[in-house]
Design goal:
single chain, about 270 residues, alpha/beta, 6-stranded mixed beta sheet, binds adenosine-5'-triphosphate, binds magnesium ion
Amino acid sequence: MAAPRDASHTTDESAERSLPADSLGPRPFPVEPPYDQSTRDPVPVLELLDVSKIYRTGEIEVAALRNVSLRIEENEFVAITGPSGSGKSTLMHILGCLDVPSSGVFRLAGHDVQTFDENQLADVRNRFIGFVFQQFNLLAYLSAWRNVELPLVYAKVRPAERKARALAALDVVGLADRAQHKPGELSGGQQQRVAVARALVTEPGMILADEPTGNLDSTATADVLALLDELHRAGRTIVLITHEHDVAARAQRTVMIRDGGVFVPTAAAVGA
Ligand SMILES: Nc1ncnc2c1ncn2[C@@H]1O[C@H](COP(=O)(O)OP(=O)(O)OP(=O)(O)O)[C@@H](O)[C@H]1O
Ligand SMILES: [Mg+2]
C-alpha cells in the first residue's frame, strides 16, 4: 500500500521552490486601470500635480508642501533630498498613500488616489508599495522571519506560504541564518536589512525608503544601498529620501526639496 501523502509538506516545498527566482521582481499594479491597456506605458508610476499639504495644529498652520509637481517613471531610482523640516517625509507619506494632499492631484500609475476608498488604499499600500523607515519599525518581540511575514498576514496569505516567502526574502538580504533572531539580537544594519526584507516580501513594484541609512554606520549603509541598487536593477521603482549627498548620489536623479517646494538649483549653486 502506498504511503499516505503529506499534503502540508508538499505545499511547503512547492511554495519554497517557486519563490526565490522572482523574489526580487516587481508585481503589477493591483487595481484595474480605468483606461485602455494600450495607453498604459507612458503613464508615470507617481505623478504629483500642484500638490500642497497644510498641517493645522490649533491656530497654527504649517505648509509642509507647497505646489509640488513631480513625475517618477516606472523603474526610476530617485533620491529626494532637503534640509530637516523641508517636507521630505510629508512627501513620502503622500507618495505611499499614508496621507492625502490638502490640494492638488496625486496619481499612482495613472489612478487618481483621491478616488480610492480605504480598502483600495490599504490594498495598494500592502501589495504595491514596500516601506523602509529610518527607525526600522520592527516588532521587538517577534523573530526576524515573523517580522518579515507581517505584510503577508495582512494580505491573508496562508501560513506555510508566508513562512517560505519570509525566509526567501531574508535570504535575499543575506540574513537567512538570522531568521530566528529577535531585533534586539541583531546589529543596526541587520535590523534594517530585515526591514528591507519585510518591504520586499509582498513583491511590490515600488520601494519608498525614508532615511533608511540614517541610523547606520558606513558598512551597513553600503549594504543597504547595494540592496536598493539590486532591487532597482530587478525592475523596481525606488524613491530614496536622504539628506546625505553620497547616499543621494546612488540614485539616477535627485529632487531637492526646500521649504516644502521643489528646488531647482542654479548652475552656481550646483558648483558650490
Ligand atoms: N503631523 C504633523 N502635524 C503638524 N505639523 C507637521 C506634521 N508633520 C510634519 N509637520 C511639519 O511639516 C514640516 C515638514 O515636516 P517633514 O516631516 O515632512 O520634514 P522632513 O523634511 O522629513 O524633515 P526631517 O529631515 O527632519 O525628517 C515641518 O515643519 C514639520 O514640523
Ligand atoms: Mg523626515
